Every structure is written in C-alpha cells, then in structure tokens.
Predict the structure of SLAP domain-containing protein.
Amino acid sequence: MTMNSNDERKVVDTKLSIHPEIEDRLSDFQKECLEDEISELPSIREGEVDITTDFIFDMEDNYETSIFIRNGLQQDLMLQYVPFIIVDSEEKILARKLFDLREAGNIPPHGVRPWKIYFSKDEVDLEGQDLTKLKLVFEKKLKAETIVTVEYENLPKKISMENKEKYTKFLKSLPLLKKGKFTMSTYEVVKTDDGGISVTIVIRNGYDKGIRVKKVPITILDATGEIAAAGIFYLDNVIISPLKARIYSFTFSKNEINKARANLSKWKVNFTMTNTISTGDEKKDEQ
C-alpha cells in the first residue's frame, strides 16, 4: 500500500522499529536477520506508507503471515483497519479479511515495524495449496466500512474475575464487527454429565438499535465432520441492546444427540441466520 507517492521525492533511509512489548524478547541475531530482510525490500520515498508481506506459515489452527509496515512520513504513523486478500499464483482470491493494525502501535518517522497477522482455518481453506506460491496483497476495491466495538450486557454480577477475563478475551479475539451487522460465534462446546451437549455462544449486535432474537438454529459437527446434534432454540423477549453482546448457553439432551459417541476433540458449529432476528423495521413496512 502506498500513499502520496511522488517519484521526485527522495528515497527514505528506513530503520528497524520493534514494538516495545516484544523488543526485549528478540535476540541481537533475530534483529540482525530482520534488518537484512528490510535491506532487501524495494525502496520507498518520502511521504509514502508501504506494507510488504513476507511469508505464510501453517500454524495448525491458523495461518501466520509476516509483514513489514514502513513509514516514509515525517511523523508517527498508526494504522487502523486494513483489508488483505490471499491470492494464488494465478491471482485467484482464496481469502479476504479486514485486520485491525492498531495493535502494531505507533511507528516512528522512517521506521519499519515487523508484525504478524493471522487467518484462522475457520475463515480460510488453504488445504493442498503450496504456501510458498501464495501472496498476501491489499484488497483492490476498498470500501469505506464503519467498524464498531461492543461490550457484554448480560454477564452475571457475581461472575469470577477469571471467567470475566476469559469472556472478554474471547470477545476481543472475534473478527471485526461492521456497523449494521449481527453475528453469532461459538465460545465452547462440551459434553454434560448426563450425556448431553452444551453449546455456549456469543451474540453481537452491530446495529445502532436493539435487536430482538427470535430463535437460534444450531448444528454441531464433530471431529469426523458428522452431525452430532441439530435443533432450534427459541428465545422469548430477548432484545440485545445497540452495540452490545450477550452470552447464552444451550443444551441438547442425550436423547436429542444424533451421534452417541460424538468426538468433540474438534468441533464446528453452524448457525442458520435467516429469520433469526427482528430489527423492528417489520412494523414500519406494514404501515
């Protein structure tokens, strides 16, 4: 990504800038290796901001990509939301994701900040792909999207600090929420003592008005990909406030489980979002 490109401007002599929180964890040798990689990057000019991708690695649960953020400005730089896509050797798009790069911190003038971004394997399927031939590039058609943050509104008052931190950490780890969007995400799937299956989910409301949740259709796939349980849970008078999140647990009884010996060492939960919520617009349409 380049901004304010001008070929008449002088080439910038950039310097390695490690994030303060990880600088002490890097050895001198690691820093020298990073400096060598930076020296091989194409030059940038005064006034330009550039992000160069390095490698894509398979990290079991996700794909890790190393990037270099280069600041050719004469002031500190902090990036916010940047859209990336993964393409193969034929430029076919395999995945796209909007990343929040604020955690990369302030990058000083003419600094180069090494950083890592991750694609969850739930978000992208690169099975069978030669990762050495894939590229991470910027989304060509940038759309101005408003990203919103939400917080819980139904955590129990007597919840332990440990559980509160776990729920909060999970909420922050979810993909960015665009304004006007509504999501359901699985927090946990466990077997109950009486042989049932309990599913805990987090529901986020990105609308600027309350959302009434009518029902939650849930399908659980076990580690073998087979349906372990499926059903619809109906909610009465549940309204999620604007820009808020709620946690709910739903339980399939032993008799409702399709597969008695479901392997939950790995699992996947599917939600059917059609007709699950009401925004209140239906009444306006009827008038």
Summary: Residues 147-286 form a domain with the Immunoglobulin-like fold (CATH 2.60.40).
